C-alpha cells in the first residue's frame, strides 16, 4: 500500500492582522469618545426628564432658595366651596407667596381671584393696576402693583404689605381679605398644611329657614363700608313746592285713582305724591354732582334674591315700587325682581371705565374712540341710578332687550305710569335720549307726570321741554 497511499495535509489559514495607519487609529479613538459622550448625554437627559416629572407631580422645588433670600414661594391648598372641583371632592390649588419680614413674622399673600366662588366680579385695569368690580354688590377695589394703598369704594385703605401683580393676577396680603371682605372667613389647618376660605353665614339658622346645604348659603362677598370717606349728602336743586314746575298747573288730583285688583290705598301718597320734587332730568347734559347722595334711601323689598346686596331707592320711589310689585303679582306675574337701583358716583365711574377699557380691547381703538362707542353705560354723574329714583327689573339672567318679548314687560310698559313710573328709554326715542332701548329700566316721577308722559307718548327730555316753553 505504501506507494498507493496518499497523505492529505490540511493547510491552516492564518489571518493576517490589519495594520492601521496612524490616521485611522486617531479616527477610531475619536469615534469611541463620541459614542461615550452621546450615551452619557442621553442618560442624563432621561434621568432629568424622569426627575422633573416626579418633582412636578410631588410639588417639590428642585432649587430651594437660600436662607439669605427674602422671598419664599410655597404651594398650599385653598379650599373654596362652590367650585366644580370642590363638588367632586377635590380642591383648587393657589400659589401663596410667603415673605419673611425683619421681625420673622411671615406675611401671607393670596391670589385675589381665590374669592371668586363667593362673589361675582369683573376685572379691568392695566399691567400694574387692577380693579375688581363686584357686579352684584355694586362695589369695587383697585390694587396697584407695589403699593400698600387700595381704593375701596372710593375710600383709601392701607394693607399690611403692598399688592403684587404677576402674570395678570393680583396677590394681596391675606389680612386684607380677612379684614375687608364681609362673609368670608380664612383659617389655617396645621394637619393639612392648607388655608381654608369659608363662608361665615349661620348655617344652622339658614337651614332652619328652609335653605339648602352649606354650599348654597347666600353670600355677597361684599367689601366693608368706609363711612368716613363717603361723599357728603347734598340734595339736588329741584322744585320742591307743588305747582312750581313752569308751564303746568300741577294738581295730583287731576289724575283719577286707577282701579287695581289689590287694595293699594296705603300706598296712594307714594304713587301720587303732592310734590314734583322727583321731576328732574339726569343725562349727559344734566349731571348730578359727585357728592350727591340721596338722604332718604331705603331698601327695595323685591331685590333679586341671588346673594346680591339689597338694592336701594329713595323712600317714595321704593314704596311706589312695592305697590307695583303687589299689583303685578296679583295679575299673575311673579318672576320679576329688581337687579339694580341706586348707584354711587364712584361706582358708576368704575362701571364706565370698565366699559371704556373693554371697548378699547375689543375694538382695538383709542380711548377717545372708545368713549364715543360706549352708549350702554353712562358717564359718572349722568346716570339716573345715582338719583335713587330708577331701577332695573326683569325676569332674565341679565338685562336684555329680549325682555320686551315677555308678557310681563308689556304689562309693565302699559301700567307703570299708574304707580308713578315711566319706561325711561324707549326704542323710538333713541335720537333724543341717546340711550338704546331698555325695556327693564323704569324711572319714578310720580303718577301725575308719568301719566302725562304716557298719554302724550313723550320721553322725559321731551316732557321737560314742553314745561319750559
What is the share of helical residues? 25-40%
Number of helices: 12
Q: Main sheet, how many strands, which sense, barrel?
A: 7 strands, mixed
Oligomer state equals single chain
Strand order of the largest sheet: 9-10-3-2-1-12-11
Order of helices and strands: HEHEEEEEEEEEHEEHHEEHEHHEHEHEHH
Mean pLDDT rating = 75
Would you report the number of β strands? 18
- Show unreliable segments: 65-104, 201-244
Percentage beta strand:
15-25%
Termini separation (Å)? 159 Å
Shape: elongated
Structural class given helices, strands, pairing? alpha+beta
The value of Rg in angstroms is 36 Å
Descriptive account of the structure:
- It is a single chain.
- It is elongated and about 130 Å long.
- Helix 7 (345-363) packs across helix 8 (367-373).
- The strands form four sheets. The protein has a seven-stranded mixed sheet. A five-stranded antiparallel sheet has the order 4-5-6-7-8, covered by helices on one side.
- It has 469 residues and is of the alpha+beta class.
- The termini are far apart.
- The protein has twelve helices and 18 strands.
- It has helices at residues 22-58, 84-87, 174-180, 203-208, 268-271, 315-330, 345-363, 367-373, 407-415, 430-433, 447-456, 460-467; strands at 71-79, 92-99, 107-111, 121-125, 129-134, 139-144, 149-152, 155-158, 164-166, 169-173, 184-189, 194-199, 297-299, 312-314, 337-340, 390-394, 421-423, 441-444.
Amino acid at each position: 500500500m505504501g506507494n498507493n497511499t496518499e497523505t492529505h495535509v490540511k493547510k491552516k489559514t492564518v489571518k493576517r492582522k490589519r495594520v492601521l495607519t496612524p490616521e485611522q487609529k486617531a479616527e477610531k479613538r475619536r469615534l469611541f469618545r463620541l459614542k461615550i459622550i452621546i450615551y452619557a448625554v442621553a442618560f442624563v437627559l432621561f434621568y432629568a426628564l424622569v426627575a422633573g416629572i416626579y418633582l412636578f407631580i410631588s410639588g417639590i422645588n428642585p432649587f430651594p432658595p437660600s436662607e439669605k433670600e427674602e422671598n419664599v414661594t410655597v404651594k398650599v391648598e385653598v379650599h373654596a366651596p362652590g367650585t366644580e372641583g370642590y363638588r367632586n371632592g377635590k380642591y383648587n390649588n393657589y400659589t401663596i407667596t410667603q415673605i419673611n419680614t425683619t421681625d420673622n413674622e411671615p406675611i401671607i399673600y393670596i391670589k385675589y381671584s381665590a374669592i371668586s366662588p363667593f362673589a361675582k366680579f369683573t376685572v379691568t385695569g392695566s399691567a400694574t393696576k387692577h380693579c375688581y368690580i363686584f357686579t352684584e354688590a355694586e362695589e369695587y377695589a383697585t390694587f396697584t402693583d407695589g403699593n400698600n394703598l387700595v381704593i375701596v369704594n372710593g375710600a383709601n385703605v392701607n394693607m399690611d404689605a403692598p399688592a403684587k401683580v404677576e402674570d395678570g393676577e393680583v396677590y394681596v396680603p391675606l389680612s386684607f381679605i380677612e379684614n375687608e371682605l364681609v362673609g368670608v372667613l380664612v383659617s389655617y389647618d396645621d394637619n393639612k398644611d392648607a388655608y381654608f376660605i369659608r363662608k361665615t353665614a349661620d348655617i344652622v339658622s339658614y337651614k332652619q329657614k328652609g335653605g339648602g346645604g352649606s354650599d348654597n348659603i347666600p353670600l355677597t362677598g361684599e367689601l366693608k363700608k368706609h363711612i368716613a370717606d363717603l361723599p357728603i349728602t347734598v340734595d339736588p336743586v329741584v322744585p320742591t313746592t307743588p305747582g312750581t314746575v313752569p308751564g303746568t298747573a300741577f294738581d295730583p288730583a287731576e289724575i283719577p285713582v286707577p282701579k287695581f285688583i289689590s287694595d293699594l290705598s296705603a300706598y296712594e301718597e307714594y304713587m301720587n305724591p303732592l310734590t314734583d320734587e322727583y321731576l328732574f332730568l339726569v343725562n349727559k347734559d344734566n349731571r348730578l354732582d359727585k357728592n350727591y347722595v340721596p338722604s332718604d334711601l331705603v331698601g327695595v323689598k323685591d331685590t333679586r334674591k341671588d346673594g346680591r346686596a339689597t338694592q336701594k331707592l329713595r323712600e317714595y320711589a321704593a314704596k311706589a315700587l312695592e305697590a307695583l310689585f303687589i299689583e303685578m303679582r296679583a295679575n299673575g306675574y311673579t318672576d320679576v325682581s329688581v337687579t339694580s337701583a341706586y348707584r354711587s358716583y364712584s361706582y358708576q365711574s368704575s362701571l364706565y371705565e370698565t366699559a371704556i377699557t373693554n371697548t378699547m380691547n375689543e375694538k382695538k381703538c383709542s380711548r377717545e374712540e372708545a368713549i364715543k362707542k360706549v352708549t350702554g353705560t353712562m358717564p359718572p354723574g349722568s346716570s339716573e341710578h345715582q338719583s335713587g329714583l330708577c331701577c332695573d327689573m326683569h325676569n332674565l339672567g341679565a338685562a336684555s332687550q329680549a325682555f320686551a318679548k315677555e308678557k310681563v314687560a308689556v304689562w309693565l310698559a302699559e301700567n307703570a305710569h299708574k304707580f308713578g313710573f315711566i319706561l325711561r328709554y324707549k326704542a323710538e326715542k333713541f335720537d333724543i335720549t341717546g340711550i338704546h332701548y331698555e325695556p327693564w329700566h323704569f324711572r319714578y316721577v310720580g303718577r301725575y307726570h308719568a301719566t302725562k308722559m304716557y298719554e302724550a307718548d313723550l320721553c322725559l327730555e321731551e316732557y321737560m321741554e314742553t314745561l319750559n316753553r
